[in-house]
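Hi, here's the filled form for the chain we discussed.

Project: internal
Contact: R.S.
Residues: 207
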Amino acid sequence: MFTGIVEELGEVTAVEILDDASRFRLRGPVVTQGAQHGDSIAVNGVCLTVVEHEGDEFTADVMAETLNRSSLGALTVGSRVNLERPMAVGERLGGHIVQGHVDGTGAVIERKPSENWEIVKISLPADLSRYVVEKGSITVDGISLTVVDAGPDFFTVSLIPTTLDLTTLGHKQPGDPVNLEVDVIAKYVERLLGARGEQPGVPEAGR
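And the returned structure, exactly as it came back:
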């Protein structure tokens, strides 16, 4: 379980292409502190398992399913990545509940700089749009963000200087892919209401 508060901007130092997977070596001095084999680290919002750890670098295997459903397949040596260790019990939940299970990918459509922040417009797959609402939470490349505007095939977020400086969103350009994870609570509510034969927003008869 993660919070979407990126701990550091890491770097891909090696990529090994396997038959049905890829092995990445990543540098992250903060997230590798005390890291052990089997630990979880979110890489651009994807929960990966530490296979090896040496110094300030770790390796992680990424299976074909994850490569196909996320933007990790586009990473190359030198790519910058958002890194976060799992939340410890008892710590503050600075962002929102993030599982590290990517629901789909979008792409940066446009950026509108302002004096103290920047508005970024991101494309949204049609099957995810129902989970994205104005002022709701969404995870973009592992970053917990608040939705400013929500459209049928896009949403916008407002980024403060800290986010621009310390995450990949400060460097993404129009056309660049991003990983998206919608709020898991919305998916559970939809599933529960569906099991009861209810429609979200429609009160049950007699109530």
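Let me know if anything looks off before we file it.
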